[in-house]
């Protein structure tokens, strides 16, 4: 599993309803994309749930590198870059994936929590703790799913979770809360569960 996210920070006067309309118009195009586990179309709005910015920031869990590359190098990503400029695309290697206790519920909110990996730690312990945290999040009331991944170029872990309702604990712990506009999940049933090593 590979995790990926890019963020388009919008001007303060930008009408975020244009993002909602865009997702309504094009979101279905990835509903059957080969190699995609899931894409959550995410939006933050300045002043809503504590967000300091207006930001469109889709998050992806990929089953295959080929599917990810097809998206980036010959797929819909070109249209986004043409419309908004080329964003930085963050990528993380998967550590764990868990279906949540509210697995059948619609995902309305997402939480992303990034943490630096401190110097001098045992890497295996960090990976175990990240996987354990994904499992803990998945067991929380309202959790649809939870994943953990690591970026070794920045030595940073990321926890990503989808929720039927906002998880105040995750946000209070330094997480970013997003509204979910749409979820494309053609390969979600085959995302590998549990630890990824």
Would you write up a description of this structure?
This protein has 197 residues and is α+β, with helices and mostly antiparallel strands. The chain has one domain (2-188): Alpha-Beta Plaits (2-Layer Sandwich). The protein contains five helices and eleven strands; from the N terminus they run E-E-H-E-E-E-H-H-E-E-H-E-E-H-E-E. The protein has helices at 17-26, 65-74, 77-84, 123-138, 168-172, and strands spanning 2-6, 8-9, 36-44, 55-56, 59-62, 89-99, 109-116, 143-151, 156-163, 176-184, 194-195. A hairpin with a 4-residue loop joins strand 8 (143-151) and strand 9 (156-163). The model has no long low-confidence stretch (mean pLDDT 94).
Looking at this protein, list some descriptive labels.
197 residues; alpha+beta; Alpha-Beta Plaits; 5 helices; 11 strands
Please give a quick description of this structure:
The chain is of the alpha+beta class.
Mean pLDDT: 94
Structural class: alpha+beta
Under the CATH scheme, which architecture would be assigned?
2-Layer Sandwich
Main sheet characteristics: 8 strands, antiparallel, barrel
* Main CATH class: Alpha Beta
* CATH topology value: Alpha-Beta Plaits
The number of distinct helices, counting runs of at least 4 residues, comes to 5
